[in-house]
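Good morning N.,

You mentioned wanting to compare the apo and holo forms, so I went ahead and generated the holo version with protoporphyrin IX containing FE. This is what I fed in:
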Amino acid sequence: MAKTYSTRVLTFLMLISLMVVTLNLLSMAEAQNKKKAPRKDVPVVQGLSWSFYQKACPKVENIIRKELKKVFKRDIGLAAAILRIHFHDCFVQGCEASVLLAGSASGPGEQSSIPNLTLRQAAFVVINNLRALVQRKCGQVVSCSDILALAARDSVVLSGGPEYAVPLGRRDSLAFATPENTLANLPPPFANASALIKDFADRNLNVTDLVALSGGHTIGIAHCPSFTDRLYPNQDPTMNKFFANSLKTTCPTANSSNTQVLDIRSPDVFDNKYYVDLMNRQGLFTSDQDLFVDKRTRGIVESFAIDQNLFFDHFTVAMIKMSQMNVLTGTQGEIRSNCSARNTRSFMSVLEEDIEEAITIL
Ligand code: HEM
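and this is what came out, ligand included:
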């Protein structure tokens, strides 16, 4: 009798714990879905969609996230490096992976341009490895530009930043920009807020987008020559004096090859401390610090410094907007099998393209 009673109690307890585990799993799955729910307040450009690879490569996002978790465990600095590559891709010709192309017989690629010399080679290797992993699982169906956009999102998330869904369906470019065009399209660190506001407006990014995207500088590093114009020969009076002295120790000469973290409060964490730095006049570049000097951007900096959720919300919107700039879709471009080189074309397809071009000219 006693035995039957205890067996019943045991069975009851097991059922309860099973229910608790199931409910937990369900709410975790729901939380994950919720986190990645597409934002309805950001328009998706024609040709992209929130569920582009649902049939052709449903696991693509899992593959990338899982691999990057391993990569960042070894070197979290690569998260910053990947985020910056995505920005440099989108601002030059659009988000079509042209920055990933190595130079060719036609000339040097975008990576040879001055601002891109400090992109980290190890990060390009990571993107190529992701490309190989995805291709092994799904075939040649996911573009390098989509892999880069997803890897940039995961760099943010795995450093502590906000989760967001990325519209997919980008195609890869057949050509890269010249080093001169690349230089002309990337804002320099000595730009002031007026120049940045104009540059971003030309790309349909508003003042809030500019301040939010600059928050990408909450992670990563810079080389001395990117900011020593603020130290030598004269010290920028808008810079905190103690901060300037510490930078002079890091960079004893203007051309020192040393590096400095961008956000002195939490260099590897994607948070809102970058804005706190700006309020304390500890922004590294003029392009950062001037956002707190200029009346049009100062209030936004302050609001992000006191409210991390507000920053995350605006950063997400601005990233989704930036990641859709001048994308190639449909039959434009190609899906590269190696992110560093365009696919080799057959003699016939070259001939067909030449005939098409000749007809267009006629
Ligand atoms: C607003 C105009 C911007 C300017 C003038 C600018 C300029 C720079 C410069 C000069 C560096 C340091 C390069 C070096 O010396 O190694 C840098 C690093 C970085 N930038 Fe920007 N940037 C801007 C916007 C952005 C945006 C929109 C993002 C991404 C959302 C971003 C993400 C990064 C990251 C993560 C790093 C660190 C890279 C690393 O650690 O390898 N930047 N940026």
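The first helix runs from residue 2 to 35.

Happy to go through it together on a call whenever suits you.

Best,
F.
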